[in-house]
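Ticket #4471: complex job returned nothing on first submit. Input attached below:
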Amino acid sequence: MTDNSGASLSGGSSPSREGSGPGRVARSGPISRSALAQRMSLLGWSLVLLAGAVLGAVLATLWITSISIAALGAGIPLTLLATVLVRWFADLHRQWAADRLGEPVPARPYQPTPDAGWPVRLWTILRDPATWRDWIWLVVNSITIWLSCGLSLLFFVVGFVYLTYPLIYQLTPSQVFRTPMGEGFRLHSVAQSFGLVPLGPVFLLLWYVTAVRLANLNARVIRALLGPTEQARLRARVQQLATSRAETVDTQAGELRRIERDLHDGAQARLVSLGMSLGLAEQLLPNDPQAVQQLLAEARESTSSALTELRDLVRGIHPPVLADRGLDGALKALALVNPIPTTVVTRLPGRLPAPIESAAYFAVAEAVSNAIKHAQAQQIGITVEFAPHRGGAAGELTMLVSDDGRGGASIDSGTGLRGIVRRLAAFDGTLTVDSPPGGPTEVRMSLPCVS
Amino acid sequence: MRIVMAEDLALLREGLIRILRANSFEVVEAVDNGPALIRSLTTHRPDVAIVDVRLPPTFTDEGLRSAIEARRQIPGLPIMVLSQYVEQIYARELMSDRAGAVGYLLKDRVTDVDQFVASVRQVATGSTVMDPDVVSALLTHRSTDPKLLELSPREHEVLTLMAEGRSNAAIAARMFVTEKTVSNHSNNIFTKLGLKPSEDDNRRILAVLAYLQG
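Support reply: We reran it on our side without changes. The output follows.
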């Protein structure tokens, strides 16, 4: 049979969206307008950050001074005020570094300040390691910023100055700008100063090549000093795991209860009734063969119904076709019986681990059934793709379910997406929805996995 | 009629053999895994094979794969596939060589012994038999097809029975009408779906299934 029904199954490729983090534009080969604009904006930032570093040094001094006079009493409110300023200042830098590196902004590392007297607050602040990390950063930053932003700015300014040296020579009084390379090298005429012009492009090129790297270097310094410590990261991770585990346990317990109830009221009850029919038939056999025939027919009917119920139950636990054919085959089988035309595109390296396959299958199936129920769609698309991390079998499985329906879906609108989020959370998976009113809707899910 | 059977669960294997022998089939060999099935089919060349989808050693769709492989070696070898569940995708694969002589039924259809035996004989004579579940899923899948919506309820019923693999005579008996009426209905169906009419039951069934599967 041909494959071009409503469900066209293909393993072909479709254009994939490329994330455009700020760092990626820089690698686009020849000098383009956007690359230049980006460097000019970084140049502006260098100025701002340098000024900020000076301010930071002032803050660091203010802070350490207020602490040292805290014993006098007046130092306490001053320290509290300075702390607020320092933290605000550090937050701005966290934000900038995260934007620069294309990473999510890290959570604030500070311990909550208790609603108590000033001495207690001061004590909390002093005991918070994040406070001291902030201070260390202020001090370190006031030096390192010159090696990153300062250097970048210097390259640009020097390049610009050399490029326009004859003009500067002409416009400035004699004795100024006459020794561009130190005392040993003195210029005597404008003509001589033209010899310096070629140095301009050299420095500007140096600036152009290093601008993004130096800005990233600065961002990394900020991240290293202001980002969450390993301990804080682990604490957040433990918290997240505890939450998702509790949800998983809840969901699983609910599932087991449902299965137990289905078996109890369904197949089990049918077997009991089957046994009754057969028992009665056995008893009636010598005297009433007519009734026995009737009973046997009923018994057969009963087995059929029990089997149907068991089959539905099994599909809900683990679809047999998923066990047989893996995610690829199971999704194609799903598309084939969908009342709305559904296309499936998969790019998978063979079979994935069974728990991942199962989680991915149910997530996609749930998203598809959501689209059928709520979206009034004409067409549904499923794209499942495995992207390996560099140098390893581990990677990320992304699942995209899109429809051309009426949109307006969200995780909080109670349309079943919340359940998928919970299912995926057990595997550190995520779900995002893009569904403007009027559509189209795109549900993007991802699961980290070891292939 | 000589039969080769593949079923790994002893309980079901013995039950099936009992039913088949009681209906005067000869079970020449009953195997319990995929590789043995291919071997047995190529040596015995039975009139029909009865195969469970899930078989060792992989316990996935080994039976189905082995059956398709055997049919590649012996084109048109009649095969009846039984399973605890039916999947469109497997029905498609079984029918993909368009040679007919395949059946795909839920295991519990065996409990209607007369119907099951009739289906096995039908497959042995080159016809196609599809489980009512497969057919109803196909019809649901095509529920928005305007051509199918044009059919009258009676024609729809005939179409369903035809897709399950029943001959005109069987449909007539089932619907308590004459064979002539069924023949009229089926001509109407073929016209409305834009298919080439055929007098041969087997070809008609294949055409209808091909249409439903797209």
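The CA atoms of residues 138 and 159 of chain B lie 12 Å apart. Closing as resolved unless it happens again.
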